[in-house]
Specification:
With about 375 residues, this protein is an alpha+beta fold. The chain has four domains: about 90 residues, Beta Barrel (conserved putative lor/sdh protein from methanococcus maripaludis s2 fold), CATH 2.40.420; about 90 residues, Elongation Factor Tu (Ef-tu), domain 3; about 60 residues, RNA polymerase II/Efflux pump adaptor protein, barrel-sandwich hybrid domain (OB fold (Dihydrolipoamide Acetyltransferase, E2P)); about 60 residues, Helix Hairpins (Orthogonal Bundle), CATH 1.10.287. Helix content is about 25%, strand content about 40%. The strands form four sheets. The protein has a six-stranded antiparallel β-barrel. A four-stranded antiparallel beta sheet has the order 4-11-9-6, with no helix packed on it. Strand 18 and strand 19 form a beta hairpin. The radius of gyration is 44 Å and the shape is elongated.
Length: about 375
């Protein structure tokens, strides 16, 4: 061989690689290299739901029994007795007042006499009809007279029953409007009874903008200037559906607990806690990524056995502390909160608790640094 020609040796790395590839190809039982899959990303998730805010509506009104029952006599007459005064506590069925019953009892007796006569006449005509002496028309007339007499008797007894006033339920006499010897017209109020069956309420009027915010069941706190050292808790039990034609306000009733000792008419101020529903869903601020103006990206975890990450572009409607109101997330979604910055579309997920994720924080930080090329 000429000294001027010398073959160049093969690069050791290239030579070795070529040999390895050749051996792998020639091996009779060669297996394909296993597919490399990224490990699941540990995240925490939270269910999303409609967002709401708590506000306060203030109303001023007076306390009263929820049921204020005007009591009177069904028929007119002279008042004979009044057995209660203003502020009296009464029980159900207790006698409160009565009319002079002489004329009324006489009417009941007269009705009874008429019934007795009609029964005798009917029996006599019935016997004559059996002997074919009385006609069918006469028998029918006798029956009609008996029916009319029985109806008059029932009416007289009802008038007698309502010639006295008894308490329909336990409560307190709010007003006494009659005195013994006074002449009462039929149906005129004689007493006003504050019933205790449905408790005590604060009655107030609300402007339309506040009436639309209040719902039955909203909690309230009521204070009275006359009892400045105490607050009474209650709940809204009624909201008017039409405005008062004089004031333009809507009636609201707040039932109070432990307020039986307070006199009716006492002025109080109520603070009603109301919840205002906002359009959109409430999500943690930490779940918002790639924010751009009023839009951002969030990731949700599918509900599969092996959940994966799905991105959703959302519109931000507002911020409230650590929460944000957004549009564009399904109402039943599992939103990725902690760990959202580490996932990519379609990434496999491992749902863990917040405590577990916190313990992994150092390792996760190293992983992010490596992805970003900041450290080996």
């Amino acid at each position: 061989m000429s000294p001027a020609f010398r073959p160049r040796p093969l690069h050791p790395i290239v030579s070795t690689s070529s040999v390895l590839l050749l051996l792998a190809a020639c091996a009779p039982d060669a297996q394909p290299a296993p597919e490399l899959r990224a490990p699941p990303v540990a995240v925490t998730v939270a269910d999303v739901g409609p967002t709401s805010r708590v506000g306060t509506v203030t109303a001023t009104g007076t306390i009263a029994s929820r049921d204020e029952i005007p009591l009177g006599f069904k028929i007119g007459g002279v008042v004979a007795r009044v057995l209660v005064d203003d502020g009296a506590t009464v029980r159900r069925g207790q006698l409160l007042a009565e009319l002079d019953l002489r004329e009324i009892d006489a009417a009941v007796r007269k009705a009874q006499v008429a019934v007795d006569k009609a029964q005798r006449d009917h029996a006599r005509v019935q016997r004559l009809a059996l002997d074919s002496v009385a006609t069918l028309a006469q028998l029918q007339d006798a029956q009609s007279a008996l029916d009319a007499a029985l109806a008059d008797q029932a009416s007289a007894r009802v008038n007698r029953e309502y010639a006295v006033i008894t308490a329909p339920e336990a409560g307190v006499v709010l007003q006494r409007l009659i005195a013994p010897g006074s002449q009462m017209a039929a149906g005129s109020p004689a007493l006003i009874l504050g019933g205790s069956r449905r408790g005590r309420v604060l009655r107030a009027g609300l402007p339309d903008r506040d009436a639309l915010r209040v719902r039955a069941g909203d909690s309230a706190t009521v204070r009275f200037d006359a009892v400045a050292d105490r607050r009474y808790r209650g709940a809204v039990v009624l909201i008017g559906r039409s405005a008062d034609p004089r004031t333009g306000t809507y009636a609201v009733e707040i039932r109070l607990a432990d307020a039986d000792a307070l006199p009716s008419g006492l002025v109080g101020t109520a603070s009603i806690a109301v919840r205002t529903m906002l359009v959109g869903l409430s999500v943690p601020v930490d779940a918002l990524l790639e924010a751009d103006g009023d839009s951002a990206t969030v990731y949700v975890a599918t509900r599969d056995t092996e959940p994966v990450a799905q991105p959703h572009r959302v519109r931000i409607r507002g911020l409230d502390g650590e929460r944000a109101t957004v549009d564009g997330v399904p109402g039943d979604a599992r939103l990725i909160t902690q760990g959202a910055a580490y996932v990519t579309p379609g990434a496999r997920l491992r749902v863990v608790t917040g405590a577990t994720l916190d313990s992994m924080a150092p390792a996760r930080s190293r992983t992010v640094a490596t992805r970003g090329g900041l450290s080996p």
